[in-house]
Amino acid sequence: MTAPAAFFTYPGIHGFRSGSYTLKPDVDAGIAWIYTPMSAKHGSIPNRGTLTIHYGSTQLRLNDCTLDDVQLTTASNGEQMLAFKFLDRRHRWTEGFIEGEYNVRDGDAETDPIKPSTKQDARKLASLCFEAMLESKPVVTALPDDRYPEVSWSGTPAAMLTELCEQASCRVVFDPFSNRTKIHRIGVGVPLPAGPVMSDDYGLDSPELPDVFEFACAPTWHETDLEMEAVTEDPDQDDKIVPIDEVKWKPAGGWKHYLPPELGVAKKYAETAKKCLYRWYRPKLPIKAWGHKVEDLWRILPLLDHRVGVAFLDDDDENRAKLGAALFGKYIDGHESGTVGKGDTDTV
User: Fold this and answer.
1) How far apart are CA 119 and CA 122, in angstroms?
2) Of 121, 143, 145, 133, whose CA–CA distance to 174 is shortest?
3) How far apart are CA 113 and CA 214, in angstroms?
4) Distance, CA of 169 to CA of 185 (rounded, Å)
5) How many angstroms separate the CA atoms of 66 and 86, rounded?
6) Spatial distance between the Cα atoms of 134 and 144, rounded to a whole number of angstroms
7) For 336, left (φ over 0), alpha (ψ -120 to 50), or beta?
8) 75 near 33, Cβ under 8 Å?
């Protein structure tokens, strides 16, 4: 049985000699070639049009192809040929722009951790990309409709769609027979047809291993309670900052008998005491937090003037304010007063 002859047609191109079309998955455009003799008389060839592949009674129409390149080449018999290179309609997927943040996690939510105004399942996200790619009626059912991946988009919709599909072990596929774009799961589908093999290659490509790994991390804010100690400048030590119990000029009976404005210090230290006492505090070392023991203060700096959490001002989840830092607890160790004595937890 003789196989039917195949030939390609495109508006304005005449004298077809041979052709090829490479159809592959993903968002990169497939490539088609049409070869004609150099002597062929061509008409007006549009930059965009429909390339048709004829095989017996079957026709495969590639709509919205673009003429990407024309080359002069020489056939094996020495005949000079013109080679016309076309890209299928996926060439326009490199255009367009999409941006947005979806499925943003909200650490303050007690039930649903996703901000309602940003919630979209994987299928809806894919549909947004296809819409930006000017693709109508895409098939996205291979993606789960109960998964809500957090994405922050700013780029071409085809690139954002590829990242989304990779998270679900899927690929974007252009089906020229139905003229539709689909998403398929990797490893799912019909087996290869039985029959003779045109070529069979075997090889081993071992991966190139890096010598080192380098991890670059962004700053992470943590919130915890730090034990603080009262400190002051010490004029006797060139204004070095030290705990208030280490200065030589503290009252003979300690600080517990004095409250502002009577600080019980000599006149030469009065300005320093007014400036620092009951005003200056610093984290007390060593710090035990987050399951670690921190010996050096610089490891937790800088300290923010607000907390990591936020307060909602009303029912609108967009209307929120930062919670300020707070100092609380026993702030005059050993004071005999019942209102500010040991164990008092009033906020200072």
Assistant:
1) 10
2) 133
3) 32
4) 6
5) 6
6) 22
7) alpha
8) no
- Take residue 218 and report the two structure tokens written for it: 């962004």
Strands (E), 193-340: 228-234, 240-243, 281-283, 287-289, 292-294, 306-312, 320-324
**Separation between Cα atoms, residue 20 and residue 320, nearest integer Å:** 60
d(CA 188, CA 161): 19
Read off the pLDDT of residues 273-331 as tens digits, 9 standing for 90 and up: 889 988 888 888 888 877 788 888 888 888 888 888 766 555 555 556 778 877 777 65
pLDDT, one tens digit per residue, over 131-163 is: 999 998 999 999 999 999 999 999 999 999 999
Report how far apart, in Å, the C-alpha atoms of 89 and of each of 29, 64, 81, 133 are: 7, 5, 25, 11
> What residues contact residue 229 under an 8 Å CB cut-off, 6+ apart?
243, 281, 282, 283, 284
DSSP 206-229: PPPPPS----------------EE
- Tokens representing residue 8 in the block: 């390609």
Cis bond before residue 207 (omega within 30° of 0): no
**In angstroms, rounded to a whole number, what is the distance separating the alpha carbons of residues 35 and 53?**
13
* Number of helices followed by number of strands (H, E) in the chain: 3, 17
